[in-house]
Amino acid sequence: MTDPQIAIAMLAIFILTIFLGFPVAFTLMAIAVIFGYYAYFDPSRQWRSYDRLAENPDAGSFELTIEFLGGFFNNRIFDLFVNQTYSVMSNDVLTAIPLFLFMGYIVERANIVTRLFDTLYVSAKRLPGAMAVAALATCALFATATGIIGAVVTLMGMLALPSMLRARYDVSFASGVICAGGCLGILIPPSIMLIVYAATSNVSIVQLYAGALLPGFMLAGLYMVYVVGRAAIQPGLAPKPPQEETDDLSAGKVALMLLTSFFPLAVLILSVLGAILFGLATPSEAASIGALGGLLLAVAYRSLTWDRLRESVYLTMRTSAMVCWMFVGSWTFASVFSYLGGEDLIKEFVLSLDMTPLQFLIMAQVIIFILGWPLEWSEIIIIFVPIFLPLLPFFEIDPLFFGILIALNLQTSFLTPPMAMAAYYLKGVAPPGVELAQIFKGVMPFLVLIMIAMVMVYNFPGIYQWLPTQIYG
Amino acid sequence: MISAIRFIDQLSAWFGKAFAWCIMVMTIGISFEVFSRYLFGAPTSWAFDLSYMMYGALFMMGGAYALSRDAHVRGDFLYRLWSPRTQARVEMVLYFIFFFPGVLALIFAGWKYAERSIRFTEVSVMSPAGMPIFQFKVIIVAAGVLLFLQGIAQVMRCIVCIRTGEWLQQQEDIEELEDQILRQAHEMGLGGSAGSSTQDITESIVDDAERHNRRG
Question: Which chain A residues in 94-113 lie under 8 Å from chain B, judged by CB atoms?
Fold first, then answer.
């Protein structure tokens, strides 16, 4: 077998092992070390000190044996491995991950969702499908601040879904709104997924945030238009509440409610984002300020207890370990893979297909879409996206654009079976009688909207280019 | 064997949780840098080194703990369909092929790397403060050793499972909010009356939800 073929075997074994369900981070590490040992095997280097000692007539057989055995450890893969590990440990983009996670865990526990949903419902009362609009806005804002989808969907499933069902909203409609809204956090900056993509692709995280902001708002806007429009056309899906319940609160009261619930969170997000986009602070610095702001917010809402702080700290550590260990394995894996020539082989193969850039783009996105069924976003971005990245220059595709398409695309991975986490979380907390099939039916229109958003971003590059050029010229 | 598993679990948890507090040091340290830069016009010389050292120590030392809690990402869509015995058999084999080689390499290579750094008492070149950095490189070895021990515990878990036919119960620990809520919802029979719970956070969320429902 030639080296590139061995590289392909390495990839095949890895994919097979993923399907067996072994933790991905360690599989990557072990396969990288084993194949790397083969790739960097160099007999002259391996036994250099043994050979030198062997020339010396005084050398005892004990020393010779030690040197001979020690030779087995004299392989460049070990240096490569530890260097890659250290570069993950000292990577200044990835430092933002635990900080944003910490901010998310703190905000998640700040008892803010109820307040937010109540306020937004009162403010949106005049609109058709007011409760769905409020649920969507709450999901979007909360998901943006926390970046974690499970918490948003379950919290809203406990809170907003029963309210909507009591108001005789359609089950599918109501659950679709919550599932789709809860996933927006992975797209709208400051999103953790985009940091991971930045670390994988070497696109500047600041540019990526600037680029993703408008597409994120656009998708949220499309959702909003859909919810309001559908509720206006089919009032049966989201009936207006009876008259006597709608006319109580004064404008001043509503403003006060907004001031104490909506604005603090919005200001927190905007100041974190603003600091990053205008270059006042690095993403990690902005994330620390965000985490500090989250702590203050939790104190202000009197919800910061010692237990919750401890829980947030430990969960931050656990989730950071989960994401970052995957980088340790993946960077070593990628080096060995490309050293063996696997990358070139894939490049030649794809180029031999003679595709247009659009065809390539569609193929890549379809593959990522399909990978999203069984796998999680972190595996896809850290492990599979790097296979596509070296191909982008040949098709003259901007990696920033590619990243935004992936972020849009991966929204669907939470919404489509068999691993539709958002739908399962919602099902887990929904009142009896809400079926998984109904949730999927409600999610369907949002999948179409995601596709529309991807097509729009492709056709109107201004959507993602405008803000970065405005700020950075 | 079970007490050995529990002991290693606790060891990993202790180290992981001790290093988890790095996140607070990081938050406060970097925030101080930002305030100091903008309010007093005096940027610090140590905040940058501090940030990546805390981050690196945090996630490296959390690896073994995450393993003991089964928190590492796995593509488990087939795995979850198998019986616990099959899961344990497959997993035990995979630990020997796909876990120990990588972790041993990490310990071995990390040691060579850290030892060189200790000999020079290496300092960081990233900033003028000259923060010592050799202790940070020792983290690689420490994390590797913890992972190795945890790997032994995981293999023992598999052996216990093959014998008894079911996985050893995890001890109580922190949970993600969604898991807390899901458990709560399950105990309530999905939206029934609230059960008693020890977790004040879930209680308050459920209370909030109920209060809201009465109003809405």
Answer: 94-95, 97-99, 102, 105, 108-109, 111, 113
Judge: B213–A166 Cβ closer than 8 Å, yes or no.
yes
Name the residue with tokens 């020393």.
Answer: A63
Q: Which of B32, B59, B69, B188 to mutate to test the interface with A (most CBs of A within 10 A)?
A: B59
**Residue A289 near chain B (CB below 8 Å):** yes
DSSP 8-state class, residue B79: G
What chain B residue is nearest to A88 in terms of C-alpha separation? Answer: B56
Query: What pLDDT, in 10s, does the model give residues A368-422?
Result: 998 888 888 888 999 889 989 999 999 999 999 999 999 999 988 888 877 788 8
Task: Say if B111 is an interface residue toward chain A (CB within 8 Å).
Answer: no
Among the listed residues A136, A154, A148, A140, the one whose alpha carbon sits nearest the alpha carbon of residue A107:
A148
Q: What is residue A292's predicted lDDT score, i.e. its pLDDT? A: 94
pLDDT score for A258: 83
Q: What is the pTM of this model?
A: 0.89
The Cα of A9 is separated from the nearest Cα of chain B by a number of Å equal to 15
Number of residues that this document lists for chain B = 216
- CB nearest to A432's CB, from B24, B181, B190: B190
Flag if A308 and B201 touch (Cβ within 8 Å): yes
Comparing alpha-carbon positions, the chain B residue that sits nearest to A32 is: B102
Minimal-distance CA residue of chain B relative to A110: B201
CA gap B175, B163 in Å, rounded: 28
Helix (H), strand (E) at residue B154? helix B134-164
Low-confidence ranges of chain A (pLDDT < 70): 1, 242-248
Q: Is the pLDDT of residue B206 over 80?
A: no
B202: three-class secondary structure by DSSP: helix
B216–A428 CB contact, under 8 Å: no
Specify the pLDDT at position B213.
Answer: 42
Cα separation, A398 vs A472, whole angstroms = 17
Backbone torsion region of residue A273, taken as left when φ is above 0, otherwise alpha when ψ lies between -120 and 50, otherwise beta = alpha
pLDDT digits (tens, 9 = 90+) for B124-138: 877 777 788 889 999
What does the block give as tokens for B205? Answer: 């969320």
Between B213 and A299, residue with greater pLDDT: A299
Alpha-carbon span A472 to B212, nearest angstrom: 46
d(CA A200, CA A317): 21
- From B48, B136, B212, residue closest to A163, measured CB to CB: B212
Residue A25 to residues A48, A205, B13, B181: CA-CA distances in angstroms? 33, 24, 19, 28
pLDDT digits (tens, 9 = 90+) for A196-248: 999 999 899 999 999 999 999 999 999 999 999 999 998 888 887 765 555 56
Of the partner residues B38, B99, B108, the one whose CB lies closest to the CB of residue A30: B99
